């Protein structure tokens, strides 16, 4: 497929991670709290965790402040490792527990960018990932407008979220194809879908068409794929973030791929332009049961993994302080 690809997931060794990136040559790569937690448990990445803990302890302050500084440093350290291998950008996520606090999200984003810049990495090579709550979208708007920081709006499931992101003029959105499909399979009698009728594919197609028809600059990056059929059904999308496992499957698939999304088709679609104030956004998003449940579930899961990571850091930090 001739599309810019972003790789997700860190394989279980540095060699595997490196070879996956070398083999598929992605443009960009992304992380999230769950992926960082999984990687932090792997022997191959223990030195990165150790570096972050030493940094957190050296910064001083209360235990809570030391853990927070360690978490920030760890997320950025993983991002720095990825940037050694990809030519484009890495996405680094703001703590999901801040999803309803615009000011705290902005402050955390500025902190993460400062850590990247201290390491010699320009903010142009970083996308700050924010939950697509109303507060998250407004944080993205402020970061883009006032600070020139590029944002990747994640946990995006509803059309209302996509419209609000476009109006906020954020750099990029990550609508979750696979998680939408998961919800429909779990909550309806239907258990299988052809790619062209897959609800996740249809959601991203509508968003892409809306953005292109009305000339929004925000990039659409389809994410969270469950199978190669979903990937091929979105051929032509601005960007796709694909796991190494699915990239391996695609590399063995020699069938022709038809461009499914393009600007000409989008311009011809019958979507009408809408504007969303906060009250409109909240109502329209609330009307989409799937989106409400998946956004809430995604925030809770990322928050839970952040807490697990903090617990791991506290234990290791105690061992370091005790000279173990």
End-to-end CA span: 50 Å
> Over all CA atoms, what is the radius of gyration?
20 Å
Q: What class do helices, strands and sheet pairing give?
A: alpha/beta
Secondary-structure element pattern, one letter each: EHEHHHEHEHEHEHHEHEHHHH
DSSP strand content: 5-15%
Low-confidence stretches: 9-13
| Count of individual helical segments | 14
- Helical content stands at 55-70%
The global form is globular
- Largest sheet, order of strands side by side? 1-2-3-4-5-6-7-8
Largest sheet: 8 strands, parallel, barrel
For the residues shown, what is the average pLDDT? 93
Number of strands: 8
Pathway: Carbohydrate degradation; pentose phosphate pathway; D-glyceraldehyde 3-phosphate and beta-D-fructose 6-phosphate from D-ribose 5-phosphate and D-xylulose 5-phosphate (non-oxidative stage): step 2/3
Protein name: Transaldolase
GO cellular component, one term: cytoplasm
InterPro entries: Aldolase_TIM, TAL/FSA, Transaldolase_1, Transaldolase_AS
Q: What is the topology?
A:
Layout lengths: L4 E3 L6 H11 L3 E3 L2 H8 L5 H14 L3 H21 L6 E4 L8 H17 L7 E6 L2 H14 L3 E6 L2 H10 L3 E4 L1 H11 L11 H15 L5 E4 L5 H6 L5 E4 L1 H8 L11 H6 L9 H9 L2 H33 L3
